[in-house]
Amino acid sequence: MGPLTGEERYLFDLQGFLVRRGALSAAEVAAANDAVDSMYLPRPGTSIGSQRFSDHCGVAAIFRSLIDHPAVLEILGELCGRTVRLDHTYGIVMAPGTSGLGLHGGAVPFDPSQYYCVDSSGIHCGLVAVQWALVDAWPGEGGFACVPGSHKTNMAMPGSIDLHHPCVREVPLRAGDVVLFSEALTHGTLDWRGPGDRRSLLYKYSPGNSSWALEPAVSSKVLALLTPRQREMCGPPAVAHRQNVV
User: Fold this and answer.
1) In a domain, 244, yes or no
2) Residues 129-176: pLDDT tens digits?
């Protein structure tokens, strides 16, 4: 899909997020769902911990292919710099009738690891989330939601605003769509009302000299399974010795 178009760049700056439809082929979606099935995960409950899984990149090639998928790689290079690194990754499985994280993030208070700024050289992000939808989320079924434009607000979010406030926008996704958003964007998860489990994969990226997570994105064992570019993207943060990956 290539780099951001002019329209996409405008919408990302305006909203704080961008959806690319059909970023994954039907075969890729099927492979990802089969790989999730192969993990024999316990049934998710109502707690956030029960709805998340990690250490999946060693399970199947499809999970590793998402690290530098062509639908997002050039975008990440623009937003995080050409030495962009994968900071952390996890998957989400939600059962119908359950809720996820409430609203979090936002430009205020300033977080040096999750900033959003724009200058004459372009857009600069401290942490960008890439969320791959593995099942359909039709309007009214819940899932990813956000407060568009909150990545550039100059005021802290009042406590009176929650996921049910009119300023919160549900972002419907079809299986195979990808949504990219700045972690400076106020976002959360609406109650899941789909007919089956919600499934999504999140890969979060930072500039090459920065880190948000305490642990590496993948284990040393998984590093051996990656391509040279993927290994570079999964390396530790460093100012020197990092190579351009985009």
Assistant:
1) no
2) 999 999 999 999 999 999 999 999 999 999 999 999 999 999 999 999
Distance (Å, rounded) from C-alpha 195 to C-alpha 132?
A: 19
Exposure of 43 by Cβ count < 10 A (0-12 exposed, 13-18 middle, 19+ buried)?
A: exposed
Max Cα distance, the chain (Å): 49
Q: Is residue 183 part of a domain?
A: yes
Q: How many domains does the chain have?
A: 1
Question: Which string of DSSP letters, residue by residue, matches 103-123?
Answer: SB--SSS--TTS-EEEETTEE
Question: Residue 217, class by beta-carbon neighbours within 10 Å (0-12 exposed, 13-18 middle, 19+ buried)?
Answer: buried
Element (H, E) at 145: strand 143-146
Task: Tell me the one-letter amino acid at 55.
Answer: D
Answer whether residue 1 is part of any domain.
no
Q: Is residue 35 part of a domain?
A: yes
Reading phi first (left if > 0) and then psi (alpha if -120 to 50, else beta), residue 22 is in: left
Range of the domain at 152: 6-233
pLDDT tens-digit readout, 32-85: 999 999 999 999 999 999 999 999 999 999 999 999 999 999 999 999 999 999
